[in-house]
Amino acid sequence: MAVETMTIEVAQASAIGFKAIGAGLAVGLAGMGTGLAQLGIGGAAVGATAENKEMFGLALLFTVIPETVVIFGLVIALLLLF
Amino acid sequence: MSSVNTTGPAPYIYSSTRMRVRKSKLIQHDEYMRMLNMSLPEIIRSIEETEYKAEIDELASSFSGIDLIEVGLSWNLAKEFQNVLGIMPGVIKKFTASYQQHWDIYNVLTILRGKTQGVRAGKIKEVLIPAGSLDRVFLDRLLAEDSPERIVEGLSSWSLYPVLEREFPAAMEKGTFGDLENELFKEYYHYVLKQTNSGVAGGKPFRDYLKLEIDLLNIKTVIRLFKGKAHVDVRNLMVEGGGISVDELVRLAASESMDEILEGIKKRYPEGPIGELMEEADKTMPLHEMENALTRVMLDQMDRISKRYPFSICPTLVYLKRKRYEVANLRAIARGKESGLPGEKIAEFLVV
């Protein structure tokens, strides 16, 4: 009986742990994806803005577009946790 | 710059974007056509509204007319190329610098030619374009030397010095620097071709482009020799490293007629822009039109490569080439107008 209780408790704790790992992976991997995308866009945005100051607004807009990816990750993480 | 991490694609993306923006600011075909209908002062005013404003404003008190345009364009070109070298990170900078060395050859030969013909140092300085590894201060030091021999000695730290040292006595004896120039350019192309293997992104497509550039240079020489009916040792004039071998070029140069030369080139390049040009060209085509058409082919080809490899060394080099021809075009328009040539005649000399 004690062994069975322990198993259920362990399983429940593991489930919470795995959820936390999943949430962490969702945000972390999405963040890396965003970073990779912003590497290129950011480089180009800085280059374009250096040549033409009027490009700043548009360049900033393009740079933040990949942020949506990390927000998707965050949403998945929140759904997992709550 | 060496302390900055310049690996990965970011430096290429950054530099390519900057060069693309600059390329988009270059003078367009329509603007050239408008300039052809303007007088010299109007052209100066028109140029002043573009990227040349700073130079024209600065020099307006010292020069006027055609001199103002000439000196302003040279200053702008040198400033622009030095600026490009300044913003290039890491390996791209090294590669761009080695490609820009042809300006060193131009400057050194201009100084040597000027000095041997007794031209004033100030006058020589006006036409120098310090866009390569030899900067303005170094060139000023060379200009201050009295004799050509001293100038050559002063260049002992230059990467092409061994060739200069080897060929200089013969050039002085003959009184012409043509062969020396040829040898310097041969060594330059050899060096740049070697640099394309240095691990720079886009090195391989650029090597292919360089081969095309060498081919076109050799083709131009062959056509010039034929049209000028010059009987010289062709082998010595050809630059090695191109797609067409030197033996083939020597055979082409020995052709009986222009058609035979065009046919020979067409056989080597049956398709693409060169093949098409050879199809269109005929033996009556004037030399300058043929040369301009070949230059246009070269620029188009470079554009294509840079679009295929957008984040590589290629967009930078395309911009440098286009900028160079923009200055050449503006100079042609200004000189043509100064000489009173009609607009249609000047347009034939433009590379647009």
UniProtKB/TrEMBL annotation, chain A:
The keyword Transmembrane helix applies. InterPro entries: ATP_synth_F0_csu, ATPase_proteolipid_c-like_dom, F/V-ATP_Csub_sf. One of its GO terms (molecular function) is proton transmembrane transporter activity. GO terms for biological process: proton motive force-driven ATP synthesis. Coiled coil: none annotated. The chain crosses the membrane at residues 20-46, 58-81. Residues 21-80 form the V-ATPase proteolipid subunit C-like domain. Belongs to the ATPase C chain family. This is ATPase. The lineage of its organism: Archaea, Methanobacteriati, Methanobacteriota, Stenosarchaea group, Methanomicrobia.
TrEMBL record, chain B:
InterPro entries: ATPase_csu/dsu_sf, ATPase_V0-cplx_csu, ATPase_V0-cplx_csu/dsu, V-ATPase_V0D/AC39_subunit, V-type_ATPase_csu/dsu, V-type_ATPase_csu/dsu_dom_3. Pfam families: vATP-synt_AC39. Keywords: ATP synthesis, Cell membrane, Hydrogen ion transport, Ion transport, Membrane, Transport. The keyword Cell membrane applies. One of its GO terms (biological process) is proton motive force-driven plasma membrane ATP synthesis. One of its GO terms (cellular component) is plasma membrane. One of its GO terms (molecular function) is proton-transporting ATPase activity, rotational mechanism. The keyword Transmembrane does not apply. It is found in: Cell membrane. It comes from the Archaea. It is a peripheral membrane protein. Has multiple subunits with at least A(3), B(3), C, D, E, F, H, I and proteolipid K(x). Belongs to the V-ATPase V0D/AC39 subunit family. Component of the A-type ATP synthase that produces ATP from ADP in the presence of a proton gradient across the membrane. This is A-type ATP synthase subunit C. It comes from Methanogenium marinum. The gene is atpC.
